[in-house]
Every structure is written in C-alpha cells, then in structure tokens.
Amino acid sequence: MSDAWTRKLRAVHGLMMVNGFIPLHRRPLALVAILSTPFSFLFFIYIFGHAQALLAGCIGGLIFTVINSATMLQSDLLFFKIDLKFQQIAVSSGISPLNYVIGMASGNMLFMLPGLVFFMTMIVYLTPLTVIAGIMIVATVLVTWLMFSLISYLISTRIREMKDIWPVSVIFSILFAVIPPIYYSVESLPLPYRYVAYAVPTTFSALIIKNSVSLNLAGALIYFAIFAAEAAAVIIITYLFADWRTGRS
Question: What DSSP letter does each residue of 177-214 carry, written as one string?
Fold first, then answer.
C-alpha cells in the first residue's frame, strides 16, 4: 500500500475516533437518541398493525436509523467547524473533503450500528433472504449512508451559526424519513403525489429493500441503478457547492 493511501486511512481512522469512539464513550445517551425514533415508530406499527406489519416497520426502521445518523452528523460537522475550528485545521493538513466526510461519518456509524444490527436481524428472522438479497440490502444501506452524509456535509458548509442547524435538521428528517414511503407502500399514494415521492432518494432505498425481501431481484437492481445515479448526482452537487476551504456561505 502506498504512503498516500496509508495517510488517507490513518486520517479516516483518526476522524472516526474523534467523532465516534470518544463521543460514544463520553455521551452514550446519544446512542439512545438515534434509536429512539425508529424504535418508537416500530412500537406503534406493532400496536396498530400487529405482527404482519413488523416487516414494513423494520425496513422503515433500517432506513430511518441511517437518516437519524446523518441528521446528527450535521450538528457534529457544524460544531467542529464553528466552535472548534476543526474543519480549518483539516483543510490546512491537506486532507481531502471526501476523506474528512467519510471519517466523520464513519464515527457516526458507530452510533447507528446497534439499530442496523437489530433491524437487519429482524428482517432476516421475519422473511427468508438469499445471499444476493442480503448483499443488496447492505449495499443500499451503505449508499444511503454515504449519500446523506454528503448532503449533511454540504448543509454544514452553508450554515453560519449553530442555532440555525436545528430547524434544518428537523426539516431534513421529515423530508427524508417521515413523509417518504419507507414505512408504507409508494403505491398507496395518489398518482400525482407518487411522482413527488419518487424524487426522494429514500423512496428508492425502501423500494430496493422491499424488492430484495420479496426476492424480486430484477426489480431491486433496476431501482438500485436509479438510486446509484441519484448518489452520483449528490456527489457532483456536493463537489460543486460545498465550501470546504472557508466553510462560509
């Protein structure tokens, strides 16, 4: 492995420690906060939909956990940028924006791992999965994590004050995790609104997982191709509009 790749991996590992292991040790209550909403949704889904609705609740919970992690990442990135001036230090060190985001988001992944393991275990328990279906679900979770981590990073570079992040985070969570059809079928929406739902990336996250669970792998692959195109668009938009050097809008 070249020295450049070694430096990149060390930087990602260091950032993961700074925004993952250390905060998890110091404020484990944040772990409860990330898991509270998807588990609350699952509780009410079970109460009103009974056992037959558990699978839909677990699929939605899997996606919601990732979005919750991305929402928390926005506050973390903004705190490191504004209060600690850490982003400026990262810029001067020569680390790339992509390595910075991956390192910080990898730290946040530690907080969502218990939820991901729980919901994935429940999905496997509730329905038989092939190896390919399992790989599709894991790949979908990873692409969702990367996509929304980049969106969170882009948001953090366009905000000046910490007090401005909380309304953005609430709207972010509602737009990508509450309203979209991750807990319910997109076909249940009236046709005009269905087209709007298809514009939301988490709709395709849910469609891929639902088709994988039902062993409709051809459908899952088609949706994954669209989802990958959306992820590529997010990468390009983040590259063009994120203010890495100064962090000012």
Answer: IISSTTSS-GGGS-HHHHHHHHTSHHHHHHHHHHHHHT
